[in-house]
Design brief:
The structure is a homodimer of 456-residue chains. With 456 residues, the first copy, chain A, is of the alpha/beta class. Chain A has helices at 2-37, 40-51, 59-73, 136-147, 165-170, 174-177, 179-184, 225-237, 289-309, 330-341, 368-375, 378-381, 418-421, 434-454; strands at 78-90, 96-102, 106-109, 112-114, 126-133, 151-154, 190-194, 220-223, 242-246, 250-264, 269-279, 315-322, 345-351, 359-365, 408-413. Chain A contains 14 helices and 15 strands.
Chain lengths: 456, 456
């Protein structure tokens, strides 16, 4: 009996060791391939420097679609373009913003930019005195009598004490997204929003606003964090300050565009689909290197890595470069709609849209069983710095798949530098570390490998 | 009995909860203070831009000592300078390195720099044909008949597949440190070493060499990774290539310098000392922002944070800004010598010298009991991204304390970007993320707080 038990234990142990060590070695191969001969950085370099900004409806976005299709053709079984109509907002000529009558300082030029989807002021601009507030509550308390005819300046900073900067963003971004409509309720004529950044910076951060239906659409700008502080100081120093700003943005009719979709067809379960993706569109002020060129090339790299190491997936691995995450989410919505129409079976969706920074782990929105299964792979992934599997999350573009019961997974990179660049002119390729980007691609490929091999 | 047991359990539980939650809240306070009002970045900005390079014996090093003393005076109980004689190597005028007779390319200028502590060629330079090798074994096999009178080119790259870049460095750096003396054994006249970097770069990495006693001292240069590849390609293309290089470095007599030492005196156990430090000297090519200005300001910040949150340590917290880590370790050796002479009781030493990048954990060289105790604090530290306590380590400057049985701890930041800048002109303040630096300072302060409170 004792001998027999030992024998059973031996089988159990060696079986476990074998599988563990085969996975260990496949994952090692993925990382080796990417770190020694990865193409993610080279692809990102092309996308960011040869194509650059690619807001939905722009020529850059169209070029990016063609680029994505062409690149994926090199290592996918098939590539197709999924049509989707997208919002088409254009910034127009460079914005101006200035204090026009400071007694101490004269005219003070400020670094500003229109918020995405904002209406423009046109050449007449907007002039008004400023009401600075830190919250919607404060605005409400001031009420129409203090706000009417004025420009509301939302100046609540992101909270620097949050360890995860996305939490700090989450605590401030309503000012940008909803502030213009909130201000309109009390008769304001325009809105200035403190940029969503943690540092003292010279450049403004753009990003989308959402007008509430049936409320006046106010023109709205972001102001750099340095100038937000300066403006606040001027307002404390002097009464009767007048501010002028001029924006030339407008929303054109919806434009045709595409999600780029590429597949490696599964050898055993071709109808079981695992999605990995990022969004191809970016704001217009920069190259969209971290947001979200990084996520696109990392997702593309998953397919290429499988090819390179000779891994033939059991299930269908589908790369999706989503269009229009930044100002509409039309790509993500259309992808989910088509999946439902075609009754496709998605077993998981993974998105990378938190930047190409050094990996920390994965976030998940899924059943407890799925979460446990993924957490069970931690020993295989922790040697590569992936230790954090504890948070809920996913990605905007794959979010709509959730309604179909698809487990949603987010790649979780380190968040510390993300908001130094987010939605600004500074989101350029030189801010991306080649190795950090590559580790992200290899992390994603490793997780997809495990999901493909063991299911979810 | 049952009631009594429940009561005991309640005490136990609530006692545990209290202590855990008090530590949680102290650590939260440390992070809040640093992330909202930290001075580490401001200090580093001054050190790197107003003082800049500070190789041992240089005016920059002397200025840095004065700066350190002055800054620490703001928040330490006492500051003193610990005298130490240091090597005094100077680079002299800019180096040149070139292929002088390529048939296809003519004269090809290369980006090179003298290795630290190298003898110079003087104005006559060194000319010779090149023997490229990847290892000391290969050199040995070639032997004197193939090497004599020639320039040896060590061109083994760092292994990009290592997750921790310090491992990749460890696998290649013998070429720089020992290569010149190895080459001299076979009658070489000069040495070129591939820069210790993982990227394709235009700039060379300096760093120290160590001549073996009683072997000829060959002049030695580092070549940028791009030019190492180019040189290797030229050597494959063409026979009879001649290389010329010229360096003007020299070693002057040892110079007087100092470790900067500052204390908060312990309230209960003033004779128990906890050291936290980095090294104040840097290579001469850049500002030494990550190496190791970051470690210095993070260590200084530990004291300032304790002051700011009103924490009075039980034990004496001693900040040491060590002199001469880069080319001699005289500061670290002298500090340990004095500690032994004075029979000081050091209960732990923590060094930050792996860059001001986002924190990952701590490395340790200590008894199993000490390691377990520190690992036991992981639940308090993991919310701040500190999860890795598994590796052996410490720091060069605190290494000599090990002989006295002192537990040695290294701050472990993410390693991915370190060798993009290490020992190069690129190690500048703009490569440091303010938040990443601050998180490092807060991580170190939190660990020191726990060591101080509970002992080791």
């Amino acid at each position: 009996m004792r001998l027999f038990l030992s024998f059973l234990l031996m089988i159990g142990t060696s079986g476990h060791v074998f599988s563990q060590s085969s996975d260990e070695s496949s994952i090692r191969q993925i990382y080796n391939e990417e770190l020694a001969r990865g193409k993610s950085y080279q692809m990102l370099e092309y996308l960011t420097t040869h194509i650059g900004a690619r807001l939905s409806g722009s020529p850059g976005a169209a070029a990016a679609v063609e680029w994505g299709r062409h690149e994926l053709d090199n290592f996918a079984d098939s590539v197709f373009l999924q049509p989707v109509m997208v919002p088409h907002w254009v910034r127009g000529q460079k914005e101006v913003g200035r204090v026009i009558n400071s007694k101490k300082r004269g005219v003070v030029e400020m670094n500003v930019c229109a918020l995405g989807m904002s209406v423009g002021t046109g050449p007449a601009g907007v002039t008004g005195s400023i009401v600075e507030v830190k919250s919607f509550d404060e605005l409400k308390q001031l009420g129409e009598k203090n706000v009417k005819g004025k420009i509301v300046f939302f100046n609540r900073p992101m909270d620097p004490t949050k360890f995860n900067t996305f939490e700090a963003y989450g605590g401030a971004v309503e000012q940008r997204a909803l502030g213009p409509s909130e201000a309109a309720k009390y008769g304001a004529v325009g809105v200035i929003v403190r940029s969503m950044g943690l540092n003292q910076e010279d450049y403004p951060h753009t990003g989308g606003l959402r007008y509430t239906p049936n409320i006046a659409k106010l023109p709205a700008i972001a102001i750099s964090t340095k100038h937000a502080d300066l403006l606040s100081k001027i307002l404390k120093d002097e009464k009767d300050i007048q501010f002028y700003f001029e924006t030339h943005c407008e929303t054109l009719p919806d434009a045709p565009s595409f999600n780029v979709v590429a597949e490696l067809v599964g050898s055993e379960f071709p109808n079981e689909i695992i999605v990995v993706g990022g969004h191809l569109d970016s704001w217009d002020l920069a190259q969209g290197a971290h947001d979200d060129g990084a996520g696109c090339v990392q997702s593309m790299e998953v397919l290429r890595l499988f090819k390179m190491i000779g891994y033939k997936p059991k299930r269908t691995i589908r790369v999706v470069l989503f269009m229009n995450e930044e100002n509409g989410l039309r790509g993500g919505l259309e992808y989910a709609r088509q999946a439902e129409l075609k009754k496709e079976k998605h077993i998981a969706a993974l998105e990378s849209d938190d930047g190409g920074f050094t990996p920390r782990g994965f976030t998940m929105t899924a059943s407890e069983a799925v979460r446990s299964k993924i957490k069970g792979w931690k020993p295989l992934l922790e040697p590569y710095g992936l230790y954090d599997f504890s948070h809920e999350g996913g990605g905007a573009d794959i979010g709509p798949l959730q309604a179909q019961g698809v487990p949603i997974i987010g790649f979780l990179p380190d968040s510390q530098r993300y908001f130094d660049y987010h939605h600004t002119q500074e989101d350029t390729i030189d801010k991306v570390s080649k190795r950090e980007l590559e580790l992200g691609a290899a992390s994603m490929a490793s997780l997809i490998y495990l999901i493909d091999k063991y299911g979810l």
